[in-house]
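Hello,

Our lab assistant flagged a job as stuck in the queue for most of the afternoon. It eventually completed. Since we weren't sure the result was trustworthy after the delay, we are filing this so someone can double-check. Below is the sequence as submitted and the structure that was eventually returned. Let us know if re-running is recommended.
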Amino acid sequence: MRMKLTINGVNGSMIMMAGFENSTAKSNALNHLSLLWLRPQKDEWDELVSHASINELVDQLKLGFGIDVDAQELLDLAPAFDEAYTFNTQVLSMNFAKKSAAPIESIYKIWTIDPNCNLQNARQKGFVMGDPAYHMKDLMKSLEISLPEDFIEMPDHLSVILSLASVFLEAGNFEAYKTFVTDHLDWMEDYQKRLENLDTHGFYLALLAIVQNIYKSEIAR
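-- returned structure --
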């Protein structure tokens, strides 16, 4: 689904091989969730929301994070491809429509905390390519990860964030993973409010609730 980040070369000082419970289950769940926030492609979407895949996601969430999700409820909410594609295009894509709710971190945070930046929108929300985006770009550069072309202007898209969190776990970089999740998933409540103000599909609200629970679970460790 056009989103599988891998580390080509890693600064050895960034890797800290210490035990982290059920990291494989966590990584698998995060990667699956990252794909569900992408603009869908027919065959891949049908596989992602199949009975087997949803049940596997639910199992991984329970094993990795201790999060209980009703698999049947998620299956019942899952939209068919056409509906998912339309919702993603009209609501989840980056555009200037009033009903747009793109899952991009910078939009929901103050654009920059740089005291030397005197731009008019510097202390406002609602803009892309803010501090979180540049931090994401710097992280991926340090890990020699190439950002997919679709995300060049939105490196802090939720799909990229979840995928990179998965990469940290796969690499055994558990300290960086904890810091990363703490820094880059702390905007979920603001995003939830945005989605709830729109005619949002219940499936995506359920996915967001899962991500929120992951964030709460990890920062409490």
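-- support follow-up --
The delay was a queue issue, not a problem with the job. The result is valid. DSSP finds ten helices and no strands in the chain. Residues 54 and 71 are 6 Å apart (CA to CA).
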